[in-house]
From TrEMBL, chains A, B:
Residues 465-688 form the Glycosyl hydrolase family 67 C-terminal domain. This is Alpha-glucuronidase. InterPro entries: A-glucoronidase_C_sf, GH, Glyco_hydro_67_aGlcAse, Glyco_hydro_67_C, Glyco_hydro_67_cat. Keywords: Carbohydrate metabolism, Glycosidase, Hydrolase, Polysaccharide degradation, Xylan degradation.
């Protein structure tokens, strides 16, 4: 399974051989047909061979009296489930013997990995009978990989883990063994859809849709064995650039026909192809606006082309004026997605999914949850997260994003923090379940649901993700897609258990000490109180407080000698706060009720403004920046105490990353503190060193 | 003479055919041998054929009774002057007949262009007998051209005029016709040396010294016909990278021997080769420091290798710590060249020239004159200027640099402004003439002199220089090298007369209205009062007030809510001011005597500090930024009134550049004003619009 075009045999991540010890040492039966049942059988056969168990492949319903683990289809005739999206499984344990039964072979595969995750615990404890099903059928990862290396963005846009696992030097790799390993890792955490190319579709990538479709067929074949469907990002201008037409007007019959024929060819080659991802009329990408058409016109035309195949159109809502004038304080980029899309609620076809970033700006360490998620009850909306750490340390900083995602998933638009007045969570809205499935109060629910999407963080790096600890983010994303209510610390436990099997407890404790509050730590030493950015333009790494302040990108903090923040209130500001339903519109509207962590996102306040914490804004800036660096130092101490207990290569990589994190955090601390000391003139009340 | 590998036939710049009307319509005799006499004869033959004059080629001393212009060697035997550097000529006019007589054919060529520049005026007026000689033998242009396009810097580092005229796609161009046109333009303004590759010597360019020497031979052959010698920039690591040695230690005999052999090969191929340009131990370039050797060790080793051929080593003094910590206010990049080199005065060999930028930082619109120029009386020093507008608008802004250079050339280190207490000017120091040749007071003079060098601004652009008006900078540089005492406005007159022959007077008046104060205008709308930078990092175009404030580059302004500027005094600052001799060290030391335009270079002062102009610093910032944009608007009006009177392509190019200059100047005005309003809180006393 080594690929000589890959840099090295990659780290096993959360599927080292030892993770299969519990399964592999038992008598296991696999029963049922289907491609994924075959995959399950191969996994079990390999594990039992390694760990001394026994493996039998039987027909459904055959006698299995002495088996300790049975993985089986519920019915011998699985053909009726060929097109089923049912991925659930039933887990029963009776006197230490486990049966996993599923309606489809996909359910069997998820059941197997459920048992793997549990390890010995799967076979211990009282008898059990549980049914497990994913919160949504749509659990997707987007790869912003370029076929040709982009002159600025490189081979993977926002890639901090080496080159692409799919492409090399302008072509799809001949050796896809690394993709196979990746598909297995994704299957083990429940991901079932992957878009394999950048949403910024350049000339070379565009051809995946047509001339190079054969290569997509090869990639899809690899993912298929792991229950994962492949999607492509496509350019809205494809009828012109690939089809030789003179227009890509969505209402032009020739354009629609071109897409119909193109979709037919794609599904003819890949019957289980997933669909198209589109970034249109955003940051220079082409779209329907050129023809005076709406986003709905554009999306629905594509949707019609893919509808016969149950194909999906993921249409991104990341649309804003990226040629803004910093002098103009009335334009607010944060408003843009809502302003563009909310009026189109109900206008999209049933197989269009509007893909909405979690916040109104761009994957900052702290943003309010995007109001678009609450504003379109008649639209399928996917919540878009970012596993790749674009603004959160670029896989040089140890930042575990599970707590951020968990907080977003649990946010309730119609209840204040901690409340549960019967209103759905963001996860409910994205999955169409829970409180969003049937809310008798409003009658507006039975929400159509778009599930989850996120930007992947892997590359051809030895550890997949640059920082070995960034594997935990990929792991957590998959697990939270399956069950958004999981506790992110418990998910981290799972990841540690699988990734460091047999390691002393101290290793797991150290990982927790490093990662549990690492998102908060990163927030502490970077942009304060929700104001965002303050990063170096272009690559977005490291501090530059005024880096975006006078640019066309619409991301400002408006700091002056008296105060800082963006007034987004309805009363005196841009009105963004009123895009939220009550009670949040009122909560955000007033600095006296706005949560501290978002204060500067919603309000321009004097440095002397007193937070709910009792500190002034300026002292909060100083305190958090000093504390953030102290916490990084503590993280390093915690890890150093156990680093000799793990694989020395991993240990070396982590040490190298920590050195950079400490350097960078210190630079953040000093630049931010100096910037605000120079501007405010207010000294640190504790007299610590702030350079002038 | 068209080159089909070039984009188009380039604009004739200051040598349109019509510039030769006065010469071409007369009876002209050319007498004398030598390559350049041949060039003179060709020029005259072409001009007389075009304008109906008559051309005779005679022997020196032949009767020439009816000639209206005679260009002749002084002696029939020119062989004694083969290696002479005498470029002077004698111009006599008697009853309207002109004789140009020179000791060498180079002098003849300069004499011809002298007559061309004068036009009809050469033949008019009273009888005359004048001897013209250049202020220095060393009048050089450096090309920062890369053979291979650099991934960041492109084909020409700091090039704002398209690609290289020398190189294309990794090779020296087969068609050098554009180089020939360029050589002719340079000869016409008196340039006599050209370094043809970037001082940052990358892998590809390094081979010009060895494998690709044949291509340098071809380029040298083109320049030779125009009296111009070719130099190469070389890497100090060449013995390793090209020679396969394990060291480039200047005291290693093998290294010295490698350079001796390499120099022998170069001069064998190009007997009039000029020498090597070296950027060592600066901004990542290799140098003698790696071996614990000094700059003198390094330069002298190279000097020994080229000495048998009268070769020169141009050793750049642009050496500083580019990994500075912004937190450390004691390190001062401005001090670096002096601190590095002044202790080495007298240690350099006779054929080493220390090439010193005009200011201590990096070609800013305003800097104090570098104290290194005054600090090394026993060292040949070349003054380095920058014709390419790196920090002065990148040939998008109309900025005539003649006045800046004239001010620098006329600066006297031992006299206050306007004084002439017997002390030499910077031009005297660079040329070893004037007051520097013999100063009875100090007895330290008879200064060895390194002449002038500058970074060229040409590329394969249709107008050579991007902005057609930037041609005037190239023209003025050549003319000021020949005679540093020329009035830059008079030089501009010359350029206008040659470039727009026959145009109505209004054109010349408009060019003057645009360019005469354009340097000051650019200063007005960019970084104020000598503080420098405030540009976008990397490309250095457009405003970013804090762009370099927290970087390792050592270029800071230290603006806070109370004041701005860098304390470089001896008493409380970095001590840079004391690098100057009296009276300037005392003058710069005190804010009460420091000239306004350099105040923030030398002092950190409150915004309320009152300038000699009577304005506060903050009001000066606002006023100059408003006035700068108003002046650009006036420039555009002035030019618009005459733009239809010139070549429409040139007019179109100028209009396009003016649109960008106005946009950019407005952006500068608003960013700088807003930055300081936010920081100081002081409103504009005239109540103009400053965005908050």
């Amino acid at each position: 399974m080594t690929g000589d075009t890959q840099r090295s045999v990659p780290h096993p991540a959360w599927l080292p051989d030892d993770a299969f010890a519990a399964v592999g040492s038992r008598r296991v039966v696999v029963a049922g047909d289907g491609v994924l049942a075959g995959t399950v059988a191969e996994e079990v056969a390999a594990a039992t061979a390694r760990f001394g168990g026994a493996f039998s492949r039987l027909e459904v319903g055959d006698g299995v009296s002495d088996a300790e683990l049975v993985l089986t289809l519920a019915h011998s005739d699985s053909s009726s489930h060929d097109h089923s999206t049912d991925e659930s499984f039933r887990f029963t344990r009776e006197a230490g013997a486990v049966v996993v039964q599923a309606e489809t072979d996909a359910g069997m595969l998820h059941g197997l990995f459920h048992v793997v995750r549990l390890g010995e615990a799967a076979f211990e404890g009282p008898d059990a009978d549980e049914t497990h099903a994913p919160a949504t059928d749509l659990r997707m990862l987007d790869h912003w990989d370029n076929v040709d290396a982009h002159p600025v963005m490189g081979q993977v846009e926002r890639g901090y883990s080496g080159g692409s696992i799919f492409y090399d030097n302008g072509f799809v790799r001949a050796d896809l063994s690394r993709v196979e390993r990746y598909a297995r890792l994704l299957a083990a955490v429940g991901i079932n859809r992957v878009a394999i190319n950048n949403v910024n579709v350049h000339a070379r990538e565009a051809h995946l849709l047509t001339d190079d479709l054969g290569d997509v067929v090869r990639i899809a074949a690899v993912f298929r064995r792991w229950g994962i469907r492949v999607h492509l990002s496509v350019s809205f201008a494809s009828p012109i650039t690939l089809g030789g037409l003179t227009t890509s007007d969505p209402l032009d019959p020739g354009v629609a026909h071109w897409w119909v024929r193109t979709a037919a060819r794609v599904w003819d080659a890949i019957p289980d192809f997933g669909g198209f991802v589109v970034k249109a009329d955003s940051e220079g990408q082409p779209g329907p606006f050129a023809y005076g058409r709406t986003h709905a016109d554009g999306a629905n035309m594509l949707a019609a082309a893919v509808e016969p195949y149950d194909g999906l159109i993921h249409w991104r809502a990341f649309v804003y004026d990226h040629r803004q004038d910093w002098r103009d304080r009335s334009t607010d980029r944060a408003r843009a997605a809502f302003d563009h899309f909310q009026p189109l609620d109900g206008a999209f076809s049933a197989n269009v999914i509007l893909q909405v970033k979690y916040g109104p700006l761009d994957f900052q360490v702290r943003e309010p949850v995007s109001p678009v998620l609450a504003a379109m009850p008649r639209t399928q909306i996917a919540l878009e997260l970012q596993v790749t750490q674009e603004y959160t340390g670029q896989q040089k900083h140890a930042v575990y994003l599970g707590p951020q995602w968990s907080q977003i998933l649990g946010f309730r638009f119609w209840d204040l923090a901690g409340g549960d007045g019967g209103s759905p969570t963001v996860a409910d809205l994205a999955t169409g379940r829970g409180k969003a499935a049937a809310d008798p109060g409003t009658g507006t629910w039975h929400k159509p649901a778009g599930g989850f999407a996120a930007v992947s963080n892997v590359g051809d790096d030895e550890f997949w993700t640059g920082h070995p600890f960034a594997q935990a983010n990929l792991y957590a994303y998959g697990r939270l897609c399956w069950d958004p209510t999981l506790d992110p610390e418990a998910v981290l436990d799972e990841w540690v258990g699988l990734t460091f099997p047999g390691a002393p407890d101290a290793v797991g404790q150290a990982v927790h000490a490093v990662l549990d509050r690492s998102w908060e730590t990163y927030e502490q030493y970077t942009a304060p109180l929700g104001v965002g950015f303050m990063v170096r333009p272009g690559h977005h790494y490291g501090p530059d407080v005024d880096g975006y302040e006078y640019t066309p990108w619409g991301t400002y903090h408006f700091a002056d000698r008296d105060g800082i923040g963006v007034d987004r209130t309805a009363r005196t500001g841009t009105g963004y706060a009123s895009q939220y339903p009550s009670p949040w519109r009122e909560t955000y509207e007033s600095p006296s009720t706005c949560p501290d962590e978002l204060l500067l996102f919603f309000h321009h306040v004097p440095y002397s403004h007193v937070l709910h914490s009792g500190k002034t804004v300026i002292q909060h800036v100083y305190d958090t920046h000093f504390e953030g660096v102290e916490r990084v130092e503590a993280m390093i101490r915690a890890w150093s105490a156990v680093s000799k207990l793990v694989d020395p290569r991993l240990s070396e990589r982590v040490a190298e990353r920590f050195a950079e994190q400490l350097r960078s955090a210190t630079e953040w601390r000093d630049q931010v503190n100096t910037y605000f000391l120079r501007k405010s003139g207010v000294p640190d009340e504790r007299g610590r060193t702030i350079y002038r």
